[in-house]
Amino acid sequence: MAAIRLGSKIKELRILLCSQSKSSEGARNFIEENYVNLKQAHPNVPILVRECLKIEPRIYVRAEQGKESWLSIGSMSSTDIAQKLQKAASEE
């Protein structure tokens, strides 16, 4: 998959997931496959990964002026998560 391009308005990404649940499997794969490329492409954007047991996997996107939104990524594949994040980043 091509690198995910975050818009210049994106100031932070927080990825919340469970280290064990089946619904977070895609999120774990997404991090494994995309974290390094995302960080290299956007070195000034903090990308935080937080694990907590029995939590619904989500990505929080903080944009300019403190605007924050979140994406539910439960039971999604790594590819689906990447596409959803790319779409959200282009809308910001």
From TrEMBL:
Taxonomic lineage of the native organism: Eukaryota, Metazoa, Ecdysozoa, Arthropoda, Hexapoda
Topology of this chain in the membrane: Peripheral membrane protein
Organism: Trichogramma brassicae
Similarity field: Belongs to the complex I NDUFA2 subunit family.
Cysteine pairs bridged by disulfides in the record: C18-C52
Protein name in the entry: NADH dehydrogenase [ubiquinone] 1 alpha subcomplex subunit 2
Subcellular location: Mitochondrion inner membrane
Protein's job: Accessory subunit of the mitochondrial membrane respiratory chain NADH dehydrogenase (Complex I), that is believed not to be involved in catalysis. Complex I functions in the transfer of electrons from NADH to the respiratory chain. The immediate electron acceptor for the enzyme is believed to be ubiquinone.
Iron as UniProt keyword: no
Cited Pfam families: L51_S25_CI-B8
SMART domains to which the protein is assigned, alphabetical: L51_S25_CI-B8
Keywords: Disulfide bond, Electron transport, Membrane, Mitochondrion, Mitochondrion inner membrane, Respiratory chain, Transport
Gene Ontology cellular component terms for the protein in this record: mitochondrial inner membrane
Boundaries of every Ribosomal protein/NADH dehydrogenase domain copy: 19-92
